[in-house]
Amino acid sequence: MTTGGRTRLLRVDPSAPDPAALATAAAALRGGGVVAFPTETFYGLGAAARLAAAVRRVRELKARPAGQPLLLLVDSVAMAESVAEVTGEARRLMARHWPGALTLVLRARPAVPVEVTAGTGTVGVRLSPHPVARGLVAALGEPVTAPSANPSGFPPPTSAAAVLDYFGDALDVVLDGGATPGGEPSTVLDLTVAPPRVLRQGAVRVH
Q: How far apart are CA 54 and CA 135, in angstroms?
């Protein structure tokens, strides 16, 4: 699915998003579209994680380097288990920090497209506390990619207007939840190595 025209801008209440707007955005994702949406820090760029062609669109829009995987948003531990091998240590950290700014890198299930894993065999998963981000994942019923909605090397956006400045009509839907606060990104913790390794220090301090 491509827009072939104007990006659809849907304004939503960031604390209580309209289910109809989320359903519209989820339908776009289901059809292979790309949707921008607010998170607790910046706007993210979403594609249905199991649709390789859609994930490729995200990579192309961002000019994402080939070797860099994309993190996925989930709405539950059960959804995380659908794409990753969730260990006991991962469950402990999920119970303590989710929903929140902690991305856990785990072994990917075989069905996860290489466009997500970048050939690493691993996948980063996170449960966002933002009602729009979490609601979009729930409306789709599948994990959603969530890199920041900016071309690589440019500042991540904190408004729908900034997203449109970057991508114009190249997106299918933008969920406009108003300004996001920015701040530190999620901490990325690799649990596929022993001891676990912090790949990116962000908002969550893991001990």
A: 20
Task: State how many domains the chain has.
Answer: 1
Q: What percent of the chain has pLDDT over 90?
A: 90
Question: How far is residue 156's CA from residue 149's CA, in Å, rounded to a whole number?
Answer: 6
C-alpha distances in Å from residue 99, one per residue of 35, 43, 194? 21, 17, 24
Which parts of the chain have pLDDT scores under 50? Answer: 1-4
CA–CA distance, 22 with 4 (Å, rounded to integer): 21
Q: Report DSSP letters for 162-201, one per residue.
A: HHHHHHGGGSSEEEE----------EEEE-SSSS-EEEE-
Rounded to the nearest 10 degrees, how much is the dihedral formed by the CA atoms of 49, 53, 55, 56?
160
Q: What is the CATH number of the domain that holds 133?
A: 3.90.870.10
Helical pair 131-140 and 19-30, crossing angle rounded to 10 deg: 50
CA dist 170 and 10 (Å) reads 15
